[in-house]
Design a protein that fits this description.
This protein is an all-alpha fold. The protein is 75% helix and 0% strand. It is built from 13 helices and no strands. Helix 1 crosses helix 5, helix 3 packs across helix 9 and helix 4 packs across helix 9. The radius of gyration is 20 Å and the shape is globular. Belongs to the EamA transporter family. InterPro entries: Diverse_Substrate_Transporter, EamA_dom, EmrE-like. It holds the Pfam family EamA. It is found in: Cell membrane.
Length: 297
Amino acid sequence: MKQSRYGLCVFLGGCCYGILSTFVKFAYKAGFTPNEVSGGQYLFGVLIIWLIFLFTKKQKLSLKQVLILLVSGIPFGLTSICYYRALQSLNASLAIIFLFQFVWIGSLFDFIFNHHKPTKQKLISIAILLAGSLLASGVFAQSASFSLTGMLWGILSAFTYTAGMFLSGQVEKDLPPVERSALLSTGGMILIMILLRPDFFTDVTKLTAIAPYATVLGLFGVALPPLLYAIGIPHVGTGLGTILSASELPVAVMMSYFVIGEHIGFMQWLGVLLIILAIIAGNMQPKKILSINPSQR
């Protein structure tokens, strides 16, 4: 029973990320800029995670540990910047497809930095994933409109997201998950505040107006996913964890379809299905064949 609860945590973590694109679109329609949306998300998200931290287990850290975690959070801040730029010119369902490329980019990182050569099974899975991405993006639909700039921002967000996942899995792994998440998120927030310099700090009216959107985005994009993954993945394993976190993509597409009202064609739905099947295939473990020693017969 406990194992299923850990799996549910990972599944819900993926769902959280899938919700973001819809609310970002709402914030844009309300007249807020990408700088304001990204800044608001991290400001409110960091406030939420530090509030949670007050009621959880704490461990004393050295200045070096703090700095390492802050720097390791920078890629997550970059992901927010790149992804929200992509959403300015791409449908929410299409933007999430490009972000979702972290699946194969993660294998590339694993090969470059950990020298883990991908298996034939993994390469086949990546090929199916790329084919599914083309279908899901609607590139073959005559009515589909595309922005090359938006696509580049989307792919770049996948690389920065992968870098963030890689660093967060390498640094200070023995610390309490809430404490790690709080410092990683703070590192991302510092970068965003420096690069984007949102002006709502000097405009109380604007800060109040963006608060509803920023609270939702901060909760589901900064505070909850890292915590849910930290709780669940150590128990269900990375392979199953990747499968479960694939809930991000179908949730994003369904939110785009049912909430925003974006058109999702049959080929796009088929592409989404292929992507999910590719992730499952890439994480399936071959059944061990039991051999019987002739002398034991």
